[in-house]
Amino acid sequence: MKSKKTLQDVAAAAGVSKMTASRALRGDKDVSSTNIQKVRKAAREIGYFGNHLAASLSSKRSDLIGVVVPSLSNIVFPQVMSGVTNALVGTGFQPVFGVTDYDPNKENEILRNMLSWRPGGLIVTGLDQPEETRKLLLDADVPIVQIMDVDGTPVDSCVGFSHAKAGQDMATAILAAGRKRIAYAGCNIDKDTRAQKRRRGFVDTLNQHGQTLVTEKIADGLSSVAAGRQLAKDLSEHHPDLDCIYFSNDDLAIGGLSYCIDAGIAVPKTMVLVGFNGLELLDAFPGKVVTSRTSRQEIGETAANLILASLKGARSADPVTTVIEPEVLLGDLKPK
Amino acid sequence: MKSKKTLQDVAAAAGVSKMTASRALRGDKDVSSTNIQKVRKAAREIGYFGNHLAASLSSKRSDLIGVVVPSLSNIVFPQVMSGVTNALVGTGFQPVFGVTDYDPNKENEILRNMLSWRPGGLIVTGLDQPEETRKLLLDADVPIVQIMDVDGTPVDSCVGFSHAKAGQDMATAILAAGRKRIAYAGCNIDKDTRAQKRRRGFVDTLNQHGQTLVTEKIADGLSSVAAGRQLAKDLSEHHPDLDCIYFSNDDLAIGGLSYCIDAGIAVPKTMVLVGFNGLELLDAFPGKVVTSRTSRQEIGETAANLILASLKGARSADPVTTVIEPEVLLGDLKPK
DNA sequence: TGTGGTATCGATACCGGTATCGTGATCAGT
DNA sequence: ACTGATCACGATACCGGTATCGATACCACA
What we know:
By secondary structure, chain A is an alpha/beta fold. Helices cover about 45% and strands about 15% of the residues of chain A.
């Protein structure tokens, strides 16, 4: 049992040629049912499982789909990955995940590495890759789907939504609710370009209505509930007259909510807390946090399906951009 | 730029043989510094990146580390994956993730698939694989680390903690706090064997102290905040005299907390809510939920490092079992 | 000058599959 | 019985690298 079994061993055990064994195991045509049985039996008995390395090298294609996400510290990207995985189940394709930590250099390195495995396709988060990485993708000659954003020029296909618009829509909703003393609270701002786009959309819309942010505060490190709690504390202590905090995501907003609850600040009456993503977690606080619900699973599934379609369609299908619009959830916040 | 560049192309461009180019790019010995420069330059200029398929096939080893987790719907396993990724950064090894959805058949299939890529090592969640899968792993001849559990017999090495003991410890703590009317609330019970082990440890310890569960309730589907909220509602409506609910994890417990807050039930005074994992999310509710803090990142990192050590040590190192004990966090619960 | 050692390189043989094409056998139709 | 088509199968040539070993050049030293 120790020695690696090769197709040759299976063939020998089944009394046929390597080629026939190969065909039989892959369900190719041109094999008699007798031999199919024999080969399958032999493979099972000697404990054979294929060698994807050799198979992919020989056939010049692999059934790997590379998926590159910036972070695992927040449930959002695991959910995207989950969507990809679901869409790929039963197709014979297997996802391979890479994590960039929002580092463009690491992203480039990961993509190079993935491409060297000759994947069937690539799913990459975001549209804002540096020029060098972009070129890498353009030259790659595999279907590529960029996800989670549509504000920019995709390399190939694209599934997501406009963060700029999400920020604008939220600002409109907040203004409609009559809020005037608004702060921004974020994390990791220079690295997460999508959060930046939301912020910009939000601020621009405020400005267009003659308003400005009262203040803003950016915490170091990754977003977390604890960071949000601290941000809310700092902001409301320095600016007791705030009536709304726009957080860069739900994790922070929930931290803010936890602070407000403890500090006896009425939410959303006295203070509106705005997040982003619409995490299921918010079910624990019905109506409290204003947010935009994004469909992470659906984005992952759609991206994977685009890859599959493009792979099935032999020649590279035309690039598609699919927008999966977030839904603004106002919760208990009633427009005046 | 379109045509795939091969090592041969690089060699030609650099005016050396394929073999010299190969050595130069891998930093092997026996290459003059002149040629190293020439080859590197040529590779950069024609946009060459290697072919891991060919390299791994030829060298009979790949730098892939397979990581199999049961779920992505909860932040716990992404954090483990994150730990693995961190430990692997800069080592030249790349993690490949698979998700089983707690389905043993899917797990077997994923493992077969991974093994067919001849990975350098395998990290697998849990010790309770069916016999057939266990045999697959035993015959695999790659370093294997099973994680998140130590209650059982590992195939090779193992990193985690005893869920039975975690359940026992928690029961001891709850009894010490004087709680007598205790319910169990879980999800997905038949599939998550580790949650089962905790439950059993918990119940056994209650019994040893002459107590029994007042009731228990299992929700269908995956654990979630919403499910926990509903479980808490059902349990406390049917059993108004409960003074403690032992949830199978923190997600459910937080849902329970959210119900209690809305229902005006004092936590932990009137009702003790117990979870498991010690998610960072609990920072939003300081002191409210009793839980056991597990070190997911650390488990992932340790597992990856074990694989690396075993790979570096040429011959398979002796199996190691590393216990990373969870810490019981009682929060505001004071023993009477 | 002869000898041995070291540094550098290339020819060749694989790694374990798959693509391709050719061969013999079987069978229907005339 | 002969022809052409279809079926089943195997021999052979790769896929794009790496391992191995032998060849060459250069140098130190006897």
